[in-house]
Design a protein that fits this description.
The complex is a heterodimer of chains A (about 260) and B (about 220).
Chain A: H1 2-15, H2 19-33, E1 37-41, E2 45-49, E3 58-63, E4 67-74, E5 77-82, E6 87-91, E7 98-100, E8 120-130, E9 133-143, E10 148-158, E11 162-173, E12 181-196, E13 206-222, E14 225-237, E15 244-256
Antiparallel strand pairs in A: 1-4, 1-7, 2-3, 4-5, 5-6, 8-9, 8-15, 9-10, 10-11, 11-12, 12-13, 13-14, 14-15
Chain B: H1 2-34, H2 37-43, E1 62-72, E2 78-89, E3 94-104, H3 109-113, E4 126-144, E5 150-166, E6 169-183, E7 188-201, E8 208-222
Antiparallel strand pairs in B: 1-2, 1-8, 2-3, 3-4, 4-5, 5-6, 6-7, 7-8
The chains are: A mainly beta (about 260), B alpha+beta (about 220).
Chain lengths: ~260, ~220
């Protein structure tokens, strides 16, 4: 019976090579595999808040030995359900005061800076000044060792006489990543598209290659959240006789995943 | 086309029923396995051993939302605005929000009074903006409907920068604002907020700093 059904299923899948079907199977299989995540309280008590934040009141206290189900996470808070179906939120770090059914503390990363140093994606935005133009920057990066990371930079600079857009790739080196204020240096290369304002006579868009050298610092704010200050020297390789050097500074923030 | 949809629907419903039958049979198999006498029950404890990792737990830190409201653009009237937001909640207090909005400008008083000399073409009146901002949640609160039934709320302040595009040009724009968020469930929130978009333009021949206020209502889901 079962094999018949399986064969039928296979036939149908061949007949209708639909992505939706595959997705659906994957989803339902993962749903079937889901078991409740249960842990036992292994401390004198754990406070349960009725919202995911320290400002929301504590309305229940879990006792030692109590079995709770972990439902989901929102920022640094975990939603739980007690055996009496009471739902509330506990601090993420309180999970270290519990034991899972194998008798071990659940494997949650410690939420400090040094855990965001390797094998992490970084996303950030910055605002600043590009030789008089207002700069808006986005960067997406990947840190592959403690000290080295690579990133893609996108920038829109809005000036009085012209706007420009930059797309560049850069490598950053951070010699002391564990410092709360940690300096870095970087080099990059990319292209810059310049669009003079329509009100000026000469309105020809041009595209130039550019090289970047930068120096800056990450300032640790909280958990995976950093401020980032950077000074960039852009060396624009123009088609004219002289190359252009443009200084840019920016202040922004970065988040590590 | 219609029959194609019917087929897709049929296939998916069949898959569901097959999977259901399959899981039931697996379950039945398991329950018979456990019934190997009283001794089996004593020797094999009932607890399944399981290691829990952070990745096993679903985290809902991303938020996607739609908003609709009114945007007052200096000299160009108050206009409907709609847009999308995408946010990431970093900690219980900090979040980042990327927004993209669309609006259409009205005629200036000058254009109306001068008897039809247009300053901008219809195309140039389409305004779009994008920005990236950093927000801070404060004053967490709760609204109690009954003694045990409540909704979470919070107030947030937000500031950032981006670009506003109209009249064939980008204007670097700072944005500031505040809002009240109301969580209907853990994963659905409504949001009433104000923003100020500040930028400088030279459309009338002189540099002019403008503050453009927006009031909006948004709905978002967390995932």
């Amino acid at each position: 019976m079962l094999s018949e059904l399986k064969q039928q299923l296979k036939k149908m899948l061949c007949w209708r090579k639909s992505l939706i079907g595959f997705l659906f199977i994957a989803l339902s299989l993962s749903a079937l595999a889901d078991e409740p995540l249960e842990v036992t309280v292994n401390d004198a008590f754990i406070n349960v808040h009725n919202g995911p934040g320290g400002g929301y009141p504590i309305f229940h206290v879990l006792e030692r030995g109590e079995l709770i189900t972990l439902l989901k996470m929102h920022t640094d808070w975990i939603k739980i359900k007690t055996s009496r179906d009471l739902e509330g939120w506990i601090r993420r770090n309180d999970i270290l005061l519990t034991l899972s059914s194998d008798g071990a503390v659940p494997e949650f990363k410690k939420d400090n800076q040094s855990d965001y140093l390797v094998d992490r994606f970084e996303m950030g935005a910055g605002f600043g000044d590009f030789a008089g133009a207002k700069a808006f920057d986005l960067n997406i990066g990947y840190r592959f060792t403690r000290n080295l990371s690579t990133e893609l930079r996108l920038a829109q600079n809005t000036g009085e006489f012209s706007d420009n857009q930059i797309i560049a790739v850069a490598i950053l080196h951070q010699p002391f990543p564990e410092w709360p204020v940690s300096p870095f240096v970087g080099i990059g290369a990319g292209t810059m598209k310049t669009m003079p304002s329509a009100t000026l006579v000469q309105t020809e868009d041009r595209e130039d290659n550019l090289l970047q050298a930068s120096i800056g610092a990450y300032v640790h704010v909280t958990s995976r959240f950093f401020l980032r200050v950077e000074l960039v020297n852009n060396y624009v390789l123009t088609s004219r006789n002289t190359n252009e050097e443009v200084k840019e500074w920016k202040v922004g923030f970065s988040v590590f995943f | 086309m219609e029959s194609r949809f019917q087929r897709i629907f049929l296939v998916t419903s069949l898959i569901v029923s097959v999977l259901f039958a399959f899981s039931v049979s697996v379950y039945a198999q398991e329950s018979t396995d456990n019934e190997d006498g009283e001794l089996g029950k004593i020797i094999t404890p009932d607890i399944k051993r399981r290691t829990i990792k952070e990745a096993d737990l679903n985290s809902e830190n991303f938020e996607i939302g739609l908003f609709y409201g009114l945007l007052a653009v200096e000299d160009f009237g108050t206009n409907e605005v709609s847009g999308v937001t995408f946010s990431y909640h970093i900690t219980e207090n900090f979040f980042t929000e990327a927004a993209y909005g669309l609006s259409t400008l009205q005629k200036t008083s000058y254009e109306l009074l001068s008897g039809g000399i247009p300053l901008l073409t219809d195309d140039q009146r389409n305004l779009t903006y994008y920005n990236l901002a950093l927000g801070y949640n404060l004053m967490p609160g709760q609204v109690y409907i009954t003694k045990n039934w409540h909704f979470d709320t919070n107030i947030y302040f937000i500031a950032g920068a981006g670009n506003t595009n109209f009249a064939d040009k980008n204007y670097f724009t700072y944005n500031f604002g505040a809002g009240l968020r109301f969580y209907a469930t853990d994963w659905f929130s409504m949001d009433l907020s104000m923003r100020d978009y500040a930028f400088t333009h030279e459309l009338f021949g002189i540099r002019k700093k403008t503050n453009n206020l927006e009031g909006r209502f948004g709905m978002s889901i967390y995932f």
